[in-house]
Amino acid sequence: MEKRDLRHLKRKELIDLIDKMQTDSDLVSNEEVKEELGRLKEREKYLKHLRKTLSVLVVVAAISVLVATLWMPVLKIYGSSMDPTLENGQVVVSIKTKKLKSGDVVAFWQGNKLLVKRVIAGPGQKVDIDVNGKVSVDGKAIHETYLDSESLGNTDIDYPHQVEESRWFCMGDNRESSIDSRSAAIGDISKEQIEGKVLFSVWPLNKIGIVK
């Protein structure tokens, strides 16, 4: 038997071969058998390590999917209604929560569409917007540093507007083009509609960071 043929033998076959060597010196040398046994041991060790690594990766992937689905959904921004804070194509991570406050960026369901807007006022608060787009809550003008410009935008509701209980008044940061709680078609957002609070931007690379 040639040396290359040893690669086709299993470990037990090699051990049996050693026993036969004692009576048949024409098979292979003892050194060759030891070499192949060592190779098989290393291969078994590698395969064991590979199986363990793959098992860990499967568990990590499963946990990641579970966390993303139940607690921290990953969302992609569509459109320009949240410019300049969030741009079209940007990818963000949100957290499942119903505890919201003014200024939070939230994702919520409107029919079968997932929208992202900013909370302006909460349950029971009164919202007023003047003709120039200046927003007041409970009679106090709010300072909106996240805006490029103020605008009354698309609105067909009466002001001042009192937010219903267990609901939130939300608007996009691009006030000129955003369709939001200023429209009766959307109105105040209920807690049942809320998907989560947007926390981080993860894509593109130049936008990675906390969403404010």
Automatic annotation (TrEMBL):
Active site: S81, K117
Molecular functions (GO terms): serine-type endopeptidase activity; signal peptidase activity
Alphabetical list of InterPro entries matching this protein: LexA/Signal_pep-like_sf, Pept_S26A_signal_pept_1, Pept_S26A_signal_pept_1_Lys-AS, Pept_S26A_signal_pept_1_Ser-AS, Peptidase_S26
Domain Peptidase S26: 52-203
E.C. number(s) listed in UniProt: 3.4.21.89
Keyword Membrane: yes
Gene3D superfamilies documented for this protein: Umud Fragment, subunit A
Subcellular location: Cell membrane; Membrane
Database matches in SUPFAM superfamilies: LexA/Signal peptidase
NCBIfam families per UniProt: sigpep_I_bact (TIGR02227)
Name of the protein this chain belongs to: Signal peptidase I
